[in-house]
Amino acid sequence: MYNPTVARLTYRALLGRRRALILFLLPALLIVIAIAVRALTGVDDKVAADLLGGFALATMVPLIGVIAGTGAIGPEIDDGSIVYLLSKPVKRPTIIMTKLIVAIAVTMAFSAIPTLIAGFILNGNGQQIAIAYTVAALVASIAYSALFLLLGTVSRHAVVFGLVYALIWESLFGSLVSGAKTLSVQQWALSLAEKVAGEGYVDATVGLPTAVVLLVVVTVGATVYAGQKLRRLTLAGEE
Amino acid sequence: MTIIDIDHTSRWFGNVVAVNDVTMRIGPGVTGLLGPNGAGKSTLINMMGGFLAPSTGTVTIDGTQIWRNEQVYKQIGVVPEREAMYDFLTGREFVVANAELHGLDDAAAQRALATVEMEYAQDRKISTYSKGMRQRVKMASALVHDPAVLLLDEPFNGMDPRQRMQLMDLLRRMGDAGRTVLFSSHILEEVEQLASHIEVVVAGRHAASGDFRKIRRLMTDRPHRYLVRSSDDRVLAAALIADPSTAGIEVDLKEGALRIQTVDFGRFTELLPRVARAHGIRLLTVSPSDESLESVFSYLVSA
């Protein structure tokens, strides 16, 4: 279920394109903010939790997930170069699985690691806040990658839909409307963070069992569906 | 020996019928798929390449269905029309990746690069390649696994004459070696130079099939129209109409010319100068007035 050549091509495409700049900018921004906050307010567990929850997990992780997830396959389908992968005796679900693994690795590297670093800068992992949000970022990376990879497979406007989901659904509705919270990757990830962090610092609205089940269902479902979609992918001619 | 069979196949996109009940069999040797732009050539090649499902009918390779069957790519090499490749790779990296996806090593990639004579530029980024170089690297990527079938969609587009000749040589050699090579083109001369067998599609329909010479004869034997100006149009007209190779002559007073319809192309082209000389007439203009490819194709469809 993993093809090293597909992985190599995907890594190079993801990290080589211009939009990959955002992959570097967002984590850099998080760390700069963390340094500034630490310098201005000193060690404050509540501030650390707010920054990691409000910016790292709610904004940075989904945005990086959009870039890595859609970018792992969308541009190839758009410009037609995916034909060089499809015209090979490689199973289409293997192509999807490989691209998912690459998207997850990139999302984790550019979101979870900076989250951990920022957490240590903010309060030196006091109340396990840095570790808690890092775990949440790792878990969210998996689900976001699977979701946005599927989006990149089925839609030419994957980035736009991905941004709408990440910014409007997750950030806005996810924090205001209680029903939307149940269907939010961010909230599922938070329920894991809640178990790790000290009492009262992370507030999740979804119970842990529900969150785990939904995470698994969404990740597996999106991946299987993307594999099926790729098997039926039609490459229209230029006529 | 590998054969692609297209059996009563149609393909439509919404209300638009791109391929309409086509049946054809592509065997070893070089076959040209000829037709004007928008005739359905790419749709046919995409179905043969497994990138498009037929709406009805079947497309098979040696009896095995092509659509949703990745294993057929062990036998098929595809050279797509679209330009997009992995531009951030070098030519060599690109062909090596294609070889690896077939489970082959660098040696296979190197052989393919040598076949298309691209070794000299193999370490340059694809983004710096000319159209002809891209085309050859695409060819190399399709040849790495030594496929029995090669499908090429408009392979000569944008190539200069030298590159065109090289590619034609290469395809001819592959056809002679018993491979099934199919290429599409909307240019008659390309097909004429390369393919021994041609399939003509017009407006989604299979218009003609067979030996090129036979189809060429069909094309040249059709009624031709000429516009002729001379030093004495009426005397010339009277002399020409006496010969069975002309079917009608109109004296176009406004244009100051004769509009001649012929039924025997070969005979008429010999007759005209002979008659003119015999009557001491100078020919000022002799131009065919319906030589567009579309008129040739529409004649073939009705033939």
Helix content of chain B: 25-40%
**Biggest β-sheet of chain B: count, sense, barrel?**
6 strands, mixed
What is the rounded Rg of chain A?
18 Å
Fraction of residues in helix of chain A:
over 70%
Explain this structure to me?
The complex is a heterodimer of chains A (239) and B (303). Chain A is mainly α and 239 residues long. Chain A is built from eleven helices and no strands. Chain A is 79% helix and 0% strand. In chain A, helix 10 (185-196) packs across helix 11 (208-231). The longest helix of chain A is centred in the middle third of the chain and has 32 residues, at 92-123. The model of chain A has no long low-confidence stretch (mean pLDDT 91). Helix content of chain B is 36%, strand content 29%. Chain B is elongated. Chain B has 303 residues and is α/β, with parallel strands linked by helices. Chain A binds chain B through residues 3-6, 8-9, 12-13, 16, 79-81, 83-92, 231-239, and chain B through 13, 18, 37-38, 40-43, 45-46, 49-53, 68, 70-71, 73-74, 76-78, 80-82, 84-86, 88-89, 97-98, 100-103, 141-142, 153.
Give a summary of the structure in a few sentences.
The complex is a heterodimer of chains A (239) and B (303). Chain A has eleven helices and no strands.
